[in-house]
Amino acid sequence: MIQLVADGTWHGLEDYLHADVCKRAAISYIGPAAADLLDLTADDMIIVDGSDVALLAGQVDPNTISRWHKAGVDVRTLPNLHAKMIHLEGGETYAIIGSANASARSRDLLREAAVLTDDE
């Protein structure tokens, strides 16, 4: 299955992102809404651009990163990251690749798109 998720991308992915699955993500922009959008837990991992440049520019919300870290999420940083991808592994395995940053602006204002697939 390959599915295009557009016009309400984050809402269209909610069932997958809030399922009890292992999440591995690489998303460059992490806003304050990211914790609610991604629902990361102790078994999950996320890569962000946590560089000083990104933090000073407001591209990564330090409170969200701190919240994830305290919850046991494996938070990693990769300077100049521009990716937006999520790998979900549980009963089934899915990959999500798209344009959406993890932010309220991306969820509420921007026209984003993502491809959701379970194809190996």
Specify the structural class: alpha/beta
Largest sheet: 7 strands, mixed
What string gives the helices and strands in order?
A: EHEHEHHEEEHE
- Estimate the strand proportion: 25-35%
- General form: globular
Distance between the termini: 10 Å
How many alpha or pi helices? 5
Rg, nearest Å: 13 Å
* Strand ordering within the main sheet: 1-7-6-5-2-3-4
Poorly predicted sequence stretches spanning 5 or more consecutive residues = none
Number of strands: 7
User: Helix content range of the residues, please?
Assistant: 25-40%
Overall pLDDT score: 92
Key phrases:
single chain, alpha/beta, 120 residues, 7 strands
Please outline the helices and strands:
Elements: E1 2-6, H1 9-17, E2 22-27, H2 34-38, E3 45-48, H3 52-56, H4 62-70, E4 74-77, E5 84-89, E6 93-98, H5 104-108, E7 113-117
Parallel strand pairs: 2-3, 3-4
Antiparallel strand pairs: 1-7, 2-5, 5-6, 6-7
Summarize the structure.
The protein has 120 residues and is α/β, with parallel strands linked by helices. The chain has helices at residues 9-17, 34-38, 52-56, 62-70, 104-108; strands spanning 2-6, 22-27, 45-48, 74-77, 84-89, 93-98, 113-117.
